[in-house]
Amino acid sequence: MRFARWVFLLAGVSGILMVVPPYFLEAKMGQDDPPPITHPEYYYGFLGVTLSWQFLFLVIASDTVRYRPAMLPAMLEKASFAFAVPLLYAAGRVAGVWLVAASIDATWLVLFVVAYLRTPRVTPKVG
Question: From CA 106, how far away is CA 68, in angstroms rounded?
Fold first, then answer.
């Protein structure tokens, strides 16, 4: 349980630290990696959903046994990016730098799976 607590705590904190700065960098993103963002609703929507997940990781860390079932969609959240980016790269649709970001999510995915397997199931109380 201690392992799972640390994994989800570190995932949540590091995720918050990575997701908050882009809220203030929309214009710079368009300059550094043209074209400029043409659909800010997708950009900020993505950031909002991603930030929400980071807070869910903190909730899971607060009681890993109780929130063990939430670890399954947390794995899906990490897998969605970890698997999509290499496929997009192979198709020539994203730059290689995105493979680094995808490998970070792939690492978290592996840690989430290990945390899930090491966390005991909740046993219902009888009586």
Answer: 19
Angstrom distance (rounded) from CA 31 to CA 11: 29
Angle between helices 2-19 and 40-62 (to 10 degrees): 160
DSSP letter for 23, please. G
Segment 109-118 mean pLDDT: 98
Any idea how long the chain is?
127
- DSSP secondary structure of 45-113: HHHHHHHHHHHHHHHHHH-TTTTGGGHHHHHHHHHHHHHHHHHHHHTT-S-THHHHHHHHHHHHHHHHH
Beta carbons of 27 and 36 less than 8 angstroms apart: yes
Segment 11-29, tens digit of pLDDT: 999 999 999 999 999 999 8
